[in-house]
Design goal:
Number of helices: 0
Largest sheet: 4 strands, antiparallel
Strand content: over 45%
Oligomer: single chain
Radius of gyration: 16 Å
Number of strands: 10
Shape: globular
């Protein structure tokens, strides 16, 4: 059987990581204690209680979505570059997550400054 686990070094630092909290009290983290990265597709959404985004930085509270049957997780990143090719070049990542249900779609975007935008569409640029 092929080992599909993903190990990453610290060269790709995620400032926010997801956690899937299940009805039975168990938790699946994007990065577990063994350094293994998990994928969204590993989450059993039929047994989900809540979906969290947890900051690796101090002073940023976790963000939780309470789960309802019939929802599908949305999770992706937007990477932006500013002042490309100059000494002031800046690369930043926006963390996008939420859900799509039978009657609604909600996407939360965590901005580089920690602010959160809630929308039914993808935030294309930094405001």
């Amino acid at each position: 059987m092929t080992d599909l686990r993903v190990y990453r070094d610290d060269s790709e630092i995620l400032m926010w990581k997801w956690e899937a909290h299940y009805l039975d009290g168990s938790v699946l983290s994007q990065k577990d204690e063994d350094g293994i990265f998990h994928f969204i597709k590993e989450i059993d959404q039929s047994k989900l209680s809540s979906f969290w985004m947890i900051s690796e930085l101090p002073n940023y509270p976790p963000i939780a979505l309470q789960w309802k049957e019939g929802r599908k997780i949305i999770h992706f990143y937007r990477v932006r570059r500013m002042s490309i090719g100059t000494p002031e070049e800046l690369i930043y990542r926006m963390y996008c997550f939420g859900y799509e249900g039978p009657d609604e779609k909600v996407i939360l975007t965590i901005m580089p400054d920690g602010g959160v935008i809630v929308s039914d569409e993808v935030v294309a640029e930094v405001m």
